[in-house]
Design goal:
Largest sheet: none
Radius of gyration: 39 Å
CATH class of one domain: Mainly Alpha
CATH topology of one domain: Penicillin binding protein transpeptidase fold
CATH superfamily of one domain: Biosynthetic peptidoglycan transglycosylase-like
CATH architecture of one domain: Orthogonal Bundle
Number of strands: 0
Distance between the termini: 121 Å
Length: 315
């Protein structure tokens, strides 16, 4: 029977073992060449080398490799945090500069008054209808009562869209829309206009209450057919004052603020109806109306809503 020795002597490669130091080998007895030196077959280029993983850590990796990888990952994380912090600081500085170069909004009521006088609209007008305000917020600015004049999520989305060449994708709050109506001549054609409106919206938030913002907005918004302001639109389309509007009537007017000429119920009833359905859907989605109330609101045909158009309010 053959006796297999340690790997590096006559051991099989598949059963390699760790070579023993020469000093641990038994000294050859008489007749076996006691004076012959013990030869390290590995360093002499014969036999098999150390087993895979010998002199390494677990799984065949050199000791310390996991530590180096962790150190590298930590450095990358710190760099990423540094980049994010730098971008945030730059954004804060840019926003601060915008606040310095944009005008004060202390004259907003005076500008509303001037527009109302130019359009022959009574100033300040009747209080904003609760139903119209609810429909407007649900459709145009669902975070109106909690945001600081600007919707940070929408601003980020618009910024990314602009940088990637997809154009500006909307997302303006009611504060921004009011700033557009009062300070930038109704224009949002450029990134400069959008940036100015963002700064002005924040100033409006700091200066006026939510109710004042809604009142000014309702006074200067255009609803088509020469109707400037909520009171003129409510009387002109429905023959009722704002406080007497039904849910479908309030939804119809709230849906017109973005496209009063396109969504005119007198000349484009199909578009107007589609916007009304959208607004009612938003009221249901935000929990302001139940599903049953939403269906009931849409059950009224558009023709019945505007049956008194042009008659005005008698009192």
């Amino acid at each position: 029977m053959t006796d297999w020795g340690p790997a590096g002597d006559s051991g099989r490669g598949s059963d390699a073992t760790i070579p023993l130091p020469a000093g641990d080998l038994p000294v050859a007895g008489p007749g076996y060449g006691a004076t012959s030196p013990v030869i390290d077959t590995v360093t002499a280029g014969r036999g098999y080398g150390p087993a895979p993983g010998y002199g390494r850590g677990s799984y065949g990796r050199y000791p310390g490799a996991p530590g180096r990888r962790q150190h590298r990952a930590r450095r990358l994380l710190l760099r990423a945090i540094g980049v994010v912090v730098s971008l945030v600081l730059l954004a804060i500085m840019a926003f601060g500069a915008l606040l310095l170069v944009t005008p004060s909004v202390g004259n907003a009521p005076a500008l509303v008054r001037a527009q109302d006088l130019a359009h022959h609209v009574a100033y300040p007008g009747p209080p904003v209808s609760a139903r119209f305000a609810t429909a407007l917020v649900a459709t145009e600015d669902k975070r109106f009562y909690s945001e600081p004049g600007i919707d940070l999520f929408a601003v980020g989305r618009v910024g990314i869209s602009y940088v990637t060449g997809q154009g500006m994708q909307g997302g303006a709050t009611l504060y921004q829309q009011l700033a557009k109506l009062l300070y930038t001549n109704g224009s949002s054609a450029s990134a400069a206009d959008e940036a100015e409106q963002v700064a002005l919206a924040f100033k409006l938030y700091l200066t006026y209450t939510k109710q004042q913002i809604l009142q000014m907005y309702a006074n200067v918004a255009y609803f088509g057919n020469g109707f400037y302001g909520l009171a003129a639109a409510s009387c002109g389309y429905f023959g009722v004052r704002p406080a007497g509007m039904s849910w479908p009537q309030a939804a119809l007017l709230a849906g017109m603020v973005q496209g009063p000429s396109v969504d005119d119920p007198l000349t484009d009833p199909g578009n107007a109806r589609a916007r009304e359905v959208h607004v009612v859907g938003r009221l249901v989605a935000t929990g302001k109306l139940t599903q049953a109330q939403g269906r009931a609101a849409l059950a009224a045909p558009l023709s019945s809503l505007i049956s008194r158009a042009g008659q005005g309010c008698s009192r």
